[in-house]
Amino acid sequence: MTVKKLVLFAFLLVPALGFSQEKIAYVSYEEIIPLMPEYEALQDSLENENANYAEQLKTDQDEYEKKYAEFVEKQATLAENIKKRRQEDLEDLRKRIFLFQQQAQQSLQTLQQTLLAPIIAKVDKALEDISVQNGFTYVIRAEALQYSSPKSINATPLLKAKLGLKDAPAAK
Questions:
Q1: What are phi and psi of 141, to 5 degrees?
Q2: What is the DSSP letter of 75?
Q3: CA-based end-to-end distance of the chain
Q4: Is 71:90 a contact under the CB 8 Å cutoff?
Q5: Residue 83 Cα distances to 71, 80, 94, 96, angstroms
Q6: How do the residues of the chain divide into helix, strand and coil, expressed in percent and rounded to 5?
Q7: d(CA 89, CA 95)
């Protein structure tokens, strides 16, 4: 065997040997995030904002129902051009209500993402710390796993401990 072939063989063998040293773990953010103290404040903010939107939506729907009832009651006595105008007004109000629902939903999603970002950043930082401490080369989110062997390393308990979290009490 020539020296060149020996050196090439050594270069090819070293990464293969190193790969067997990889430590891969998984962690469940879905289990961690609801236990975070900040998560309760996030939920409260979302519920308050949702209540505000629901109140405005109820007001708009009540207005629509009132105008529709008035229209139905008086439509037989209305001139054709007034009847057409009121139908158009009702349709415009219905469209505005629908648009408001869509905008409210989008606003709530944006608010949730904004409030969740610092929580996720805190969990990410703690995950990085435990990964270094435990020598994990890779940590995979459990929610993305199709299968994990019983020999797999579940880093969720380590992450909970790092964040000072306790499991939620079981539902009765």
A1: -70, 130
A2: G
A3: 72
A4: yes
A5: 8, 5, 16, 20
A6: 75, 5, 20
A7: 10
Q: How far is the C-alpha of 23 from the C-alpha of 155, rounded, in Å?
A: 11
Whole-angstrom distance, CA of residue 114 vs CA of residue 21: 38
> Structure pTM?
0.72
Q: What are the structural domain ranges in the chain?
A: 24-158
The whole-number pLDDT of residue 20 equals 54
Q: Name the residue type at position 124.
A: D
Burial class (CB in 10 A: 0-12, 13-18, 19+), 27: buried
Q: Using an 8 Å Cβ cutoff, are 100 and 60 in contact?
A: yes
Q: Does domain 24-158 have CATH number 3.90.580?
A: no
- CA-CA distance, 69 to 90, in Å (whole number)? 11
Write out residues in the chain with pLDDT < 50, as ranges.
3-14, 16-17, 171
pLDDT digits (tens, 9 = 90+) for 35-65: 999 999 999 999 999 999 999 999 999 999 9
